[in-house]
Design a protein that fits this description.
Strands 6, 7, 8, 9, 10, 11, 12 and 13 form an 8-stranded mixed β-sheet that branches. By secondary structure, this protein is of the alpha+beta class. Bound molecules: pyridoxal-5'-phosphate.
Length: 288
Amino acid sequence: MTSTPVVLLLKPSGIRQVDPRQPQLAVTDWGATSGDGVFESISIIDGRMPPLGARFDRLEASARALDLPVIDRARWTEALAMSIEAHDPVQRLAVTLAMTRGIEGGDGTPTAWLLARPARDFTGIRRSGVSVVTLDRGYASDAADGAPWLLLGAKHLSYATNAAALREASRRGADDVIFTSTDGLALEGPTSSLLVRRGDVVESPGVESGILAGTTQATAFRFFESRGLRTRFAPIRARDLADCDALWLVSSVRQAVAVHTLDAQPMPVDGDLTAELNDWLAGAARSE
Ligand code: PLP
């Protein structure tokens, strides 16, 4: 049992555990030179294997968008089980599955690895919520239709723009970001999906607006439905966000955080509902 990161390389010859303190990636890997690859982040709670279907579907869709080979679900599942086995079960783990285009000038074999490490403790922020600024992503909400090479909606390794947006939020004194489209729609966070509540309806933007299909958003919809609220995908105008009854940013490892301040204006927060949502999300992650 370890509390240090576990790194597994998925080679054509088999899965190999390697020393996390040693370099494992060639500097000529397409992932390193161009961010050319795909990934998934998975939360492991209490040492339990989470439901993987939606994640593998998304990893496969991302790989397809980048013309990468079909993923081998059985091998990824085996690697995940090995990484869970290696850790103390009381720890929450944040697991990354990554696959790149391989080595520049190589034979095209993807480089694939799994990194499992104790997750950051987000208990405080789940309770306190976050302040958010809206930032223009620079694309229209239908940009993905005419320009699939933008890879909107694929979970690819080039997260530099997302990280830059978070630094801009920090410069503006905020914790997080809601991206907007040039035609005025609210989209998603740099590492999270957006949920809004208006009365007894909870909405999230649809994937046709060029955003990632959120697995946490899907689980959160089931939670709200269990509470008698209606859920739906809908275009959400950025200028209407301030009038919503609640906003959340949701993602696998951090789970749900309420937005308590939007563009320097206070937003209503339902602390009890947020706590129940987070309990539900943790329960769903343990449910396989
Ligand atoms: N949108 C973006 C851009 C993300 O990076 C993420 C997660 O990393 C999400 C949404 C939320 O996805 P999930 O709930 O599957 O973690």
